[in-house]
From TrEMBL:
Record protein name field: Dihydrolipoyl dehydrogenase
Bound cofactor: record note: Binds 1 FAD per subunit.
Location of the active site: H458
One of the Pfam families matching this protein, by short name: Pyr_redox_dim
Species: Massilia psychrophila
Swiss-Prot/TrEMBL catalytic activity: N(6)-[(R)-dihydrolipoyl]-L-lysyl-[protein] + NAD(+) = N(6)-[(R)-lipoyl]-L-lysyl-[protein] + NADH + H(+)
Top-level taxon of the source organism: Bacteria
UniProt binding sites for FAD: K60, G124, T157, G158, S159, D326, M332, L333, A334, H335
Cofactor: FAD
A GO molecular-function descriptor: flavin adenine dinucleotide binding
Enzyme Commission code(s) on record: 1.8.1.4
Similarity field: Belongs to the class-I pyridine nucleotide-disulfide oxidoreductase family.
Gene: lpdA
Keywords: Cytoplasm, FAD, Flavoprotein, NAD, Nucleotide-binding, Oxidoreductase, Redox-active center
Amino acid sequence: MSTAKQFDVVVIGAGPGGYIAAIRAAQLGFSVACIDEWSNDKGGPAPGGTCTNVGCIPSKAMLQSSENFEHVGHSFKDHGIDVAGLTLNLPQMLKRKDGVVKQNNDGILYLFKKNKVSFFHGRGAFAGTLDGSYSYSISVSGADAGTLSAKHVIVATGSNARELAGAPFDEKLILSNTGALAIKAVPAKLGVIGAGVIGLEMGSVWRRLGADVTILEGLPMFLGAVDEQIAKEAHKLFIKQGLKISLGCKIGQITPNGEQVTVEYIDAAGAAMTAVFDKLIISIGRVPNTNGLNADSVGLKLDERGFVVVDDDCKTSLPNVWAVGDVVRGPMLAHKAEEEGVAVAERIAGQHGHVNFNTVPWVIYTAPEIAWVGQTEQQLKAAGVAYKAGTFPFMANGRARALGDTSGMVKVLADATSDEILGVHMVGPMVSELISEAVVAMEFRASAEDIARICHAHPSLSESTKEAALAVDKRSLNF
């Protein structure tokens, strides 16, 4: 790599926010470089960040594989399919997961080449300003070591798993999401601290494959960010599946001991408890990845938690320096990072990029899936907003019956006066796909009546959204 090669835009990080920002900036005519240090098991570049390498993509691969395994063992008989001698080939399952990850890594490298984005495999960090102007020197350490200069810098360095005090990750007994996706043998007893997205998804994977899974959650209520009615329904279904979920737990000493780890905790009733697990997954949130960015060298402002401080337009404290994704405020979601990346590239080009945080969808890819957008019923009550609610259960949906999965419901919340949709909440089969209709509707400020009047294909799961919208006006047709 030549020293101090000049670019219009340098993006530090090739996760969802970074690589999308780089591609969009290149589409807009800028000369663009993207720096990322993630490596595969052979030392080659593995762009895509946490999402592609140890997050969204591999977890969905494992969720799909484990769900297939559970279907063969438990529900195929209902379809008249008898399978004898079912066995788990975990090495092949992990190999498939790794193959899916590599396909995504390679896809990003192809997109860089297609869009003429210069990719540098290494760790990017600020090295200073150039000639007192609003240009920056960026050092690259690693395979493509050297120096770049940039008129604009986009920081997209993502996040890391939060460690629990006194229990550092060793990825052997005490696991982050990274280790949770690479367990070589199904543990007899698996502990999970944290009943959030990662905890529930990883707990579901290993329960389906045969582990006895216990989830310990510190909060007194299950999925506090989810609409309460939906969360209660999901909790009931997970318990029925065999997940053991204890709420209101205060975690104490965690002690690795040979091949097991002991967790001491106080349960919701105040009783001292001890549990011994073969593996322990800790999923208590994530922290911004700003270590090594050398922010002090240019005076880039970070907050007390390590996040890059930005305004509503993702501008930092420095001219021509921007930040997107997990490293800034807002939900730590890959699609939120992507939208911010596009918006920033367009703002650099003088356009008016925009991200509507009120219509960012959330999904938990368990079975049943949980998805939502907009405000929950408890939020509307707390804000004193007059609203109407309509629900429709999947048990009354013909396609769900044919699929053999009638768990859950769709819930639509609308303004009591204007009928504008304020939130849509779902738990059930494939709701990760159904939620997009609600996002589109809310972006266009649709009313519940609008969805209720739109013709939906029959039989389809999406009819449940129509029926829930009809139920807002108390005129559901199939329930």
